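for the writeup, i need someone to sanity check this before i put it in the appendix. the sequnce is what the collaborator sent (i think, or maybe the updated version? ugh). structure was predicted straight from it, no edits. if anything looks off just tell me and ill rerun, i have time this weekend
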Amino acid sequence: MDIENIESSDIKNFQIVIASKNIHKIREIKTILHELLPNLDILSLIDFPEYKPLEETGASFEENASLKAEYAAKTLGRWVISDDSGLIVPALEGSPGIYSARYAGDKATDADNRKKLLSNLSKLSDKDRYAYFECCIALASPEKLIKCVCAKCEGRIEYQEKGGEGFGYDPLFVKHDYNKTFSELKESVKNKISHRRKALDKILLTLESIISSS
C-alpha cells in the first residue's frame, strides 16, 4: 500500500512505541520513521519510566527483537516496534554479535567496546577486518507478534576511530563503496544506507497496512 493512499489524520491517530531507552537508537529510528511516515505519533520506553525491560535472552537478533516487542506490547497495551542490532566480525567467530552493547563488560561504554574490538583485530590481516551490521525490527500488537524482518550493511573495520557523529561502533565501520566511517557521514546519509534503514524499509508496507486498517 502506498503512503499517498493513507489519510494524514489516520497516521496522526496511530501511535507506536519504540521498545528502547537508548537515546541514540530512539533518535535514529524516529528520524527514519518520520521521513517515511511524517505524521506518525512515536513514543519510546523513556515515556514509561515505570516500565521494566525484558532481559535479552534470545540467541539471535531476531529472537531478541521479537521477545522485546511482544513483551512491551502486551505490558503497555500498545503497538510496539523493537530493534535488536549489532556488529558481526566473521574472523572473530561472529563477535561482538548479540553482545555488541556489552562486548567489554556489562557496564562497558561504547568507547570500551571499540577499544576491545580494535585490540582483538590488531593481529589479523586486512581481509579479516570484513564486518557487517545486522538489524532486526519486530512489530507487535498487544495481542501478538505481527512481523520481524532483518537487514545487513556490509563493510570493514578501520584501524582507528574516525569522525564525531553516530554511536556504538560507527567511528570504526566503513560501508562497502564508501570511504568514510558512519561517524564521518552526515546523519542524513547514514540514515539512507544503514542496516536500520534497510530493516525499517522492509517492515514499512506492513506498518502502512496496519495504519490504514486500524
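The domain at 3-213 is CATH 3.90.950.10 (Maf protein). Confidence is low (pLDDT under 50) at residues 1-10.
thx in advance!!
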